[in-house]
Write a structure and sequence with these properties.
globular; single chain; alpha/beta; 426 residues; two-stranded parallel ribbon; 51% helix
Length: 426
Amino acid sequence: MPENTIALRKEVQEKVRELGEADIVVGIPSYNNAKTIGHVVRAVQAGLSKYFPDSKSVLVNSDGGSTDGTMDVVRETTVDFDSILLHHRVGNLHKIITPYHGIPGKGSAFRTIFEIAKSLNVKACAVVDSDLRSITPEWIELLVRPVLNAGYDYVAPYYHRHKYDGTITNTIVYPMTRALYGHRIRQPIGGDFGLSGKLASFYLSKNVWDTDVARFGIDIWMTTTAVANSFKVCQAFLGAKIHDPKEPGSDLSAMLHQVVISVFNLMEEYAGVWKNIKGSRPVPTFGFVYSVGLEPIKVNLEGMIEKFRLGVKELSVMYESFLPGELMWFLATVGEKPKEKFSIPDNVWVEIVYNFAVACHRKLMSREHIIKSLTPLYLGKVASFVIETWESTASEVEQRLEELCIAFEKEKPYLIDRWFEEEEEE
């Protein structure tokens, strides 16, 4: 076993020994989710019993020290199968409920789930968020079946979301990950996914579990690691992801910093992989893709534009140290335009993001300072996108995002030239 393998709690080790082996593990990481986790547990139990009645399955709740009775809810929650007309085998479904070890964060919870999956020698594993309001039993089939029946190692989630939900994914993470690694995985930082036992063991062998990856950034790390190491990947359409959405102009700077620094760190690790990839290709999608009703999201357009203007004014000296002169001229002039004419074109946004990545790579200053200074520019791009798509339908917005992705792919040679130019000079 790798050196970074954690020691599972004594009672968990005993439960694992008692079970011997299993076919499927479904993990639910949690922290003070007593109000929502009962619904998630019922959906997981129903999904396993309905779609995998002949498989030996284990539900693992990996908890981060909840004080609201979350673990008690998991322990006590059962499904009234008579009410949902299911024939099931109660003896094939087991629970392991345990606090996780390690630094606080979702990644440490995942590590415990993967350790249990490895110890039980499972064929397939799935992980779902503990605060989901839209999860159904079908999610379990969609996340597990491609692994068991089609030989996939990683099943990313694919949801329909409100056009102004997930703006960090839409404007940075999806188009950049797609351009770098050549796979069109629509939700590379979705919180719900399936994976093979082989991939779970591979994740455990990586020395990231005592780093910031375990605190944040675990979702994009898992997706990128699977793709960059040539594991077989697909995605599964899960319908709507209903959670507590945030207005795009609210304080997302912490989340933006966490996600973007993870993307940039992974670029360092896998530069030899993404340097040679051109264009992108679709990944297989399981499930029937259909339209869904989505909860509306408030947008404070004026607030975002004002934060953009203030950021450009206060951070201009810093930006000048790594952004080309033509980009600085553009940022200075666009902020002077009235709201209805405020626009940041795709090619400009791509060059901004790529230059931020190069600045971090060259360590021109603290990575933290560089990435935090991206926040006002990101808000400007989101504001521009909202103005442009205010009357657009969901499908029209998706087409608009496709154009942004193509811009990231088209400008990739610009990134490669700037990233590797120091090596070439040597």
